[in-house]
Amino acid sequence: MSRRPLPEALPGSLAFAVDRNSPTPLYRQIYQAFRDAITDRRLRAGARLPSTRSLGEEIGVSRLPVVEAFEQLLAEGYFEARVGVGTFVADVMPAPSTARRGAASSAPAPGRRVVALRPRKLLAKKPEPWLGGRGAFRLSQPAVEHFPFTVWAALLARHARNPKASDLHYADPLGHLPFREAVAAYLRASRGVRCEADQIMVTSGSQQALEIAARALVDPGDRVWVEDPGYAGARDVLAMAGARLVPVAVDEEGLRVASGIARSPKARAVHVTPSHQYPLGSTLSAARRLQLLEWARSSGAWILEDDYDSEYRYESPPIAALQGLDRDARVVYIGTLSKILFPALRIGYLVIPRDLVPRFAAVRDAMDIFPAVNPQAALADFLAEGHFARHLRRTRRIYLERRAALVEALRHELRGVVEVLGDRAGMHLVATLPRTARDRAVAERAAARGLWTMPLSACYLGPARPGLVLGYGGVAPSEILTGVRRLRELLTAPGGSR
Ligand SMILES: Cc1ncc(COP(=O)(O)O)c(C=O)c1O
Known about the structure:
Layout: H1 26-39, H2 52-59, H3 63-75, E1 79-82, E2 86-89, H4 120-123, H5 149-161, H6 177-191, E3 200-203, H7 205-217, E4 223-228, H8 232-240, E5 244-251, E6 254-255, H9 257-263, E7 269-272, H10 286-299, E8 302-306, E9 331-336, E10 348-351, H11 357-365, H12 373-384, H13 387-413, E11 419-421, E12 428-432, H14 439-448, E13 454-455, E14 467-471, H15 477-492
Parallel strand pairs: 4-5, 4-7, 7-8, 8-9
Antiparallel strand pairs: 1-2, 3-10, 5-6, 9-10, 11-12, 12-14, 13-14
Helix pairs in contact: 1-3, 2-3, 5-12, 6-12, 7-8, 7-11, 13-15
Bound molecules: pyridoxal-5'-phosphate (PLP).
């Protein structure tokens, strides 16, 4: 039996030094130096390590951190100890690839990072400087300063302090039953939705609701109608599910159902904002509602009804949800608390046609299993004890006032320059610009001056109409007037809308 030659010992001086002033502990620095040397192939398998004592002396530290570093490297498998012989670098590195470039055309080049194609579109988006700050006229900002945080903190604490054992373990993919019951009751009474708690799924905002619906109903390559202009968040999630988006025009009666049917009669689904079209603000007319339901019934399509801010309607009571008109279980209703309460809560909900509940639940289970319980338990009480209804009443009054301030300021300061659209509901409106205006350039210049206005053209897939989408929910009336004055300076300067 031939004896294997002893591996070569480490060179007398190691090419690393420890830094005593570093916040990184000494043992960690030693560990890191060896790990890097091994993964960089500077230190090869079989190399013999010096004793911990001599290495400590070599680099000027006590033995203890060296021992700790060696123990870690042994535990992780970078070093191996041979009883009675010493410690050696283990054989952990894969053999260097010998494949030559182009040798096998189907194999990726060595080191190439092959990734999925779908996120490319998300990454290719143009910069959106108008999303860079808060204040006038940033979209999707509710009046958080009026939220009853003391009540909310007490409710969260109530459930955090005395949780039921069942609220601490894995639970139903649909969400916390008391909260779902409260949501179902609210939707029946206030939104005309026909539902029971067993059809409600609690989600992380309407964004996750849409993602679950897309995974449950849409296969890659299926066509899905989207409103044009429409909500980019919905388009992104549908595109990530592999849907082929079919832009369908919108007018003052909402989605032009007839053009959708003409363009893509066999689409699998449609994403629609019937109560308050995003961003133009129109309401889907009764005739179009019935036409859309009939198309869905006869073609077998699904209607994804995004009811994101329907609670706020200023000149009439809220418009009942499309779901309540549906006799064929074709509508998947999506709601959110991002507007009524605050977006960082990340709570939304789906109302699922009953026969599809097991399918949606299975998708959810494979996704994030179920939503966090504590905020749902607190929300169930928030609704049951009347805080939700009170907050809704209060914020309705606030937004009514802010909307009036914005409309008045635009009429006064920008008469003849902009036209106001979609101010009857919600927390934003559109100020259209002259046909020749370049709204993206305007919004970029506004953002550079701390004014957050979204260009209307950013909401279009097809030919766009220029304008600015202005949020007013989170903007105090005094700030609204100064904001509009700054906008006027910007727009009325020479070349201001170009
Ligand atoms: C059309 C539309 N749907 C949904 C949402 C809310 O999304 P989420 O509930 O995920 O916060 C928004 C927010 O801006 C929106 O504009």
